[in-house]
Amino acid sequence: MIRFEHLTKSYPTPWGRKVVIDDLNLELPSGKALGLLGRNGAGKSTLMQIVAGTLPPDSGRVISDGTISWPIGLGGALHPDMTGAQNVRFIARIYGIDSDSLCAFVQDFAELGAHFQMPLRSYSSGMRSRLAFGASMGIPFDTYLVDEVTSVGDARFRAKSKAIFRERMKTSGAIMVSHNMRELLEFCDAGLVLENGRMYYFEDLEEAIALHEAIMEA
Description:
Layout: E1 2-13, E2 16-28, E3 33-37, H1 44-52, E4 59-64, E5 68-72, H2 84-95, H3 99-110, H4 125-137, E6 143-147, H5 155-168, E7 173-177, H6 181-187, E8 190-195, E9 198-202, H7 205-217
């Protein structure tokens, strides 16, 4: 369960403050994979960071009764001056996971070769995403926050990423951002639409997609 209580977030602009989340009160069910939809700039990544606890709201709070991953795909959990292996060991210590086991899993999954022992500043954006995705999939979170990351890599790696994500969804929930509607329909049970600071929950994902497409066409 994730519950938003009077959650508000805004940013300053030359034309005044832009409110991206406006007094949000909503409870999300446990164990569901939710597709998060919204136009560019609607606040999807902002919401994900607030849920993860890496970005403070202006007011209000997020309450959860389970463990939540960092926003996979945004790269904020990784330090550029540490090697891939050092980053994974650091993450393992934070979440109380055996560091040797997590390192072995990520090294095998992410397929970074010698780069696993090199600083992240030498990584491409795709390599960073593969490392972050692998580290997250190696930890049994109750809710995974996923931002477009299953599109990283070649066709074989994307298939491997989707397979492990599908396996994790058997016992966990997720909030997933993607511009690929087919991918959302493949992985998600229900939908969220963020528009003008308001968020709407739909048990039927296709209804959420229909609203999102109507908003985009308006």
